[in-house]
Amino acid sequence: MKLQKILKRLQKLHPKEIDLSLDRIKKLCNKLGNPQKNLKSISVVGTNGKNSTIQTMRSILLAANIKSNIYTSPHIQKINERFVFNNKEVEDNELYKILCKIEEINNGDQITYFEILTAAYFYGAKKYNKNINIVESGLFHRFDATNIIEKNLASVVTAIGFDHTDWLPKNERTIDKIIFEKTSSLLNSKIVVSNQVDSKTLHKIKKSLNSNSSKKIYFDDLFTYSLKENNFFYYEDEYGGLKLPIPNLLGDFQLSNVSAAIATLRYIEELDISDENIKEGITKIQSTFGRLQEIKSGKLKNMVKKNKLLVDGSHNPLGAKVLADFLDTIHSKKHVIIGMMSNKDHQNYINFFKGKIESITTVDIPNQPNSIKGIDLKKKIIGFNKIYYKNSIEEALKSLSLGDEDLVLITGSLYLAGEVLNLN
């Protein structure tokens, strides 16, 4: 209860949810003694695949007995998920004490909620300053609150695509602008660029990074992977090749994220990551909540009985493409339940599922005033034979006519994914 009260107070310190600037976070961190300085950090930027990449690095570091602190956003079920200190998700009482300190030092100055949380992470991480910090950049990177680190071990650029364009000027809502915002201010260290959706995107990233003096480690140039038969995949970089077990993540597309994580840790030579650390780590990756997660038990699972139930928080066209490709590998009828935020590219997202699914049911996202109503989302959908609307996740599940081996996928928003996991 104490934690929830202070979080509500901190949310009122700025009239806007997002206000792109580094001035406020720099001012606050300066008052805190600049806890972000001298942390051993790995920065992760991109549109899709950040969480899987981060969790893979975390698991490999754990196998190597290297402790880590991790900062991610948004959370799915509870805010504690954003803060990992010394390999453990922060407990309520510790987070409360950190936020009390931040609130006291900030002294009522105007600052966004995300900036406050970012300052809290840096302040908490300083206590464990010998650990590796894996820091996810949020909306964009150039003016993201995390972008006050002055040096790091490496930066990882995951797949970049269209998302959050409503925060850009209307005449600048292009992939070029998104790439510029995410990559133009990366630190001079080592930059690992994951597999991209197409060669044009990769070319634009290379152009954006042209003046950066870092060692650039591009997929297909300095590292690569290939999926092999007999349940293994082959990874290769300048240090040699590795025959590796399939990671414990759903979907072959995850191999791209896993490979970027491996490349990052291998190229940070001082970490001295062994082949055995990698082999062990990638088979013990912590469940990425709400990211193509199978629900194997619980209230909602009971409603679909023996049918497979998946939840995925993807919410942009790039995520939809990856998800639709995954569905192509499932040889059964697929039913999609979908809810989305108002500012997303609804039609382009949903169009990726054309010809791949048996039915689509739109729902309202509870507790999210900025979401699109399910009935309005339904009106935007064309080209599907069976389109329905239900006002709740439970009603949508009850309404499905399922065969013996049908699959149910709930997708369209991380907020919806969080509601699903809470309901379950």
Structure description:
This protein has 424 residues and is of the alpha/beta class. The protein has two domains: 2-281, 3-Layer(aba) Sandwich (UDP-N-acetylmuramoyl-L-alanine:D-glutamate ligase); 293-423, Protein-Tyrosine Phosphatase, Chain A, CATH 3.90.190. The protein contains 15 helices and 17 strands. The chain has helices spanning 2-11, 23-31, 50-63, 92-106, 113-125, 175-183, 199-208, 254-267, 275-281, 299-304, 317-328, 346-351, 374-379, 393-399, 414-423; strands at residues 40-45, 68-71, 83-85, 88-89, 132-136, 154-157, 190-193, 215-218, 223-228, 232-237, 240-245, 293-294, 308-312, 334-338, 359-362, 387-389, 407-411. The strands form three sheets. Strands 4-3-2-5-1-6-7-8 form an eight-stranded mixed beta sheet, sandwiched between helices. Strand 7, helix 7 (199-208) and strand 8 form a beta-alpha-beta unit. It is globular.
Features of this protein?
424 residues; alpha/beta; 2 domains; 15 helices; 17 strands; 17% strand
**Amino- and carboxy-terminal Cα gap:** 23 Å
Helix content percent band = 25-40%
- Give the tally of β-strands: 17
Q: How many distinct helices? A: 15
In the CATH hierarchy, the architecture of the largest domain is 3-Layer(aba) Sandwich
How are the strands ordered across the major sheet?
A: 4-3-2-5-1-6-7-8
Question: What is the average of the pLDDT values?
Answer: 94
> β content, as a range?
15-25%
Kindly identify the CATH topology of the largest domain. UDP-N-acetylmuramoyl-L-alanine:D-glutamate ligase
Instruction: Give me the CATH superfamily of the largest domain.
Output: Mur-like, catalytic domain
What is the C-alpha radius of gyration, as a whole number of Å? 21 Å
